[in-house]
Design a protein that fits this description.
alpha+beta, Mth169, Chain: A, 2 helices, 35% helix, 27% strand
Length: 81
């Protein structure tokens, strides 16, 4: 099963990369943009079809390695796309 883990900075944590992209977009006249936050997406292909087991396993992976849970939140999305 394909699993996506979306990781982004927690609300309130400064995002200098997002701020840089925001200012670059403004300089390119994309004035409708109000804010930019940069994150990352990790896509896993797991040889298991049990959604509960997968969610628990990926949550443990995220807590122990994939995300810095002090400053980042993560979201697990199960699916085969």
């Amino acid at each position: 099963m394909k699993v996506k883990v979306n990781i982004g900075l927690k609300k309130g944590v400064l995002d200098p990369q997002g701020k840089t992209v925001f200012h670059a977009l403004k300089s390119l006249s994309f004035d409708e943009v109000r804010n930019v936050r940069i994150g990352k997406q990790i896509i896993l292909d797991i040889d298991n079809d049990n959604p509960i087991e997968i969610k628990n396993m990926v949550s443990k992976m995220s807590e122990e390695l994939l995300a810095n849970t002090v400053i980042e939140d993560y979201e697990i999305i199960l699916g085969d796309d």
